[in-house]
Design a protein that fits this description.
The protein is 65% helix and 9% strand. The protein is built from 6 helices and 4 strands. The strands form 2 sheets. A two-stranded antiparallel ribbon has the order 1-2. α2 (9-26) packs across α4 and α3 (50-68) crosses α4 (74-100). The longest helix has 27 residues, at 74-100. The two termini are 25 Å apart.
Length: 138
């Protein structure tokens, strides 16, 4: 699956560009018809809700503040706002492109990928406790 995505990456980038341009002119900052749920962006059938955007932005801000400490400037924070939204839109675009291309991931492939992830391993072996702790941190 990853080989197919890598092979056709240039098509994904073109699709990203088209979708980003479209939502910039059409879908940013709309409000759902109920007037209660604020939508930051729409990408195809998917909506990026303000709550999701804010929590992701706050998590990333905290992450970069820990890394850069006093060097984390106002300008970096403004750029981070853009990058978080761009990343969330890219995730939705990839989801749409994968669905359109018929790319799916089986449960076994997902389990195998998680088990091989070095961040979830201890002494080269998958550790369930580390996995759960990482999920809780996110």
């Amino acid at each position: 699956m990853l080989k197919v995505m890598r092979k056709h990456a240039k098509y994904f980038y073109v699709l990203f560009f088209i979708v980003i341009i479209t939502f910039v002119f059409w879908g940013v900052g709309t409000v759902d018809k109920t007037g209660v749920i604020e939508i930051v962006a729409e990408v195809g059938p998917y909506k990026i809700l303000a709550d999701d955007y804010i929590s992701t932005y706050e998590r990333m801000t905290k992450f970069y503040r820990e890394i850069y400490k006093d060097k984390f400037t106002e300008e970096m924070q403004k750029e981070l706002k853009k990058k978080v939204l761009e990343s969330m839109v890219n995730d939705k675009v990839l989801l749409i492109a994968a669905k359109d291309a018929g790319i799916t991931v089986s449960d076994e492939e997902l389990q195998d990928s998680i088990a091989k992830e070095p961040a979830f391993q201890k002494n080269g072996v998958f550790d369930h406790d580390i996995y759960i702790n990482r999920l809780m941190l996110n």
